[in-house]
Amino acid sequence: MNIEHVKELVEKSKNKDNQAFGELFDFYYPKILNYALRSTTNSDHAKDITSNTFLKVLEGLDRFEWRNDASFNGWIYKIATNEISQFFRKQKKYKTILNIEDSQINLSDNNESSKAIKIAIENNEYLNVLNIALSKISPIYQNIIRLKYIEDLSYEEISEALNKNESTIRVYCKRAKEKLKEIIESDNKEFLEN
Amino acid sequence: MNIDELFQKINKETYEPKDHKDKLRAALLNNKYFTPKENNRWNFNLAIPSLSLSLTILVFISAYILIPKTTTYELTFGEQKQTLYNRLSKNNNAAQTMDQNGIRALEIKQENTKTTLYFNHKNVLIGSGVHNK
Fold first, then answer.
1. How far is B45 from chain A (nearest CA, A)?
2. Which tens digits make up the pLDDT trace of A59-117?
3. How many other CB atoms are found less than 10 A from the CB of residue B54?
4. Which end of chain A is more exposed for a tag (fewer CB within 10 A), N or C?
5. Cα of B2 to nearest chain A Cα, Å
């Protein structure tokens, strides 16, 4: 979907056109759900995060303003990132954080599609290696790595999503990647050699 | 394998749990955000009784403000009469008498005439007469 069409749908949605919002939802639903799924590796949590994200999009839509072409994409990922961060904070608060392997075993959704997602995510050893390494760096670096290298957002969009200027994001991104590389190389020598 | 290759190998296949997507979609599209017209109509209907109530309150307030003004006017009027009685009764050519009903007569003598003014117990002028001496 090109940016002009997104702009048109956003304006129509602001004018209470629910069909236009439906089209925006269809476009962004898989992006947000999979962003949450790759971050939490838990389909139930990913669904909750996705639901909350879209409800907040609707609540804030009247206040949303375009500053540049990256604004809407950045804004929607900002809401999703906040929801994911809130999820991890809650996990920490109730001392159930995330041993990633444990969280995968405790999936309660018996739905067939959720089972398929669970299996696919659990079996993605590359994602598990990345998530374990990411859990060892600061939250801001985690967010930048996820948004840049996993979700393929531009620096401009990440800048919108994380409320930092673009040059700061570029510097942070370089540092985050170096830090992550260091951790992965020291923790996963054998894995990387295979 | 370096870190860039690891990023490449992360499974970027997208999953869409249909049941969740459909339920969430329906909930969002039926959200009250998309029904502003009904809200406006409801608000408009509420505006009519609100306006009536406001007007009623305004009328009562106006009436309340007017009542003290009338009283003040009457008091002033009473004071003016009382002042008239007091002022005239102090004249040297004025004589007071009081009958059994409490009506006071004030006789003011001038060169060829005698003016009698009658006041009630509140010193309000209730009648007058002029006589030749």
1. 22
2. 999 999 888 888 999 999 999 999 999 998 887 766 444 454 444 434 445 566 666 67
3. 10
4. C
5. 7
Residues B124, B116: contact at Cβ < 8 Å?
A: no
Non-local (6+) Cβ contacts of A160 within 8 A are A67, A68, A70, A71, A73, A74, A75, A77, A78
CATH says A3-193 is which class?
A: mainly alpha
pTM for the model stands at 0.64
Residue A170: closest CA among A184, A156, A183, A152: A156
The rounded distance, in Å, linking the Cα atoms of A94 and A33 is 24
Q: How far does Cα B72 stand from its chain's mean position?
A: 17
Whole-complex ipTM: 0.80
Contact B105, B116 (CB under 8 A): yes
A21 touches chain B (CB under 8 A): yes
Question: Measured between alpha carbons, how far is B129 from B115 in angstroms, rounded to an integer?
Answer: 6
Q: Render pLDDT for A133-149 as a digit per residue (tens, 0 to 9).
A: 898 999 999 999 999 99
A144 and chain B in contact, CB less than 8 A: no
In chain B, which residue's Cα lies nearest the Cα of A121?
A: B11
CB neighbours (10 Å) of residue A24? 22
With CB atoms and an 8 Å threshold, state whether B33 touches A111: no
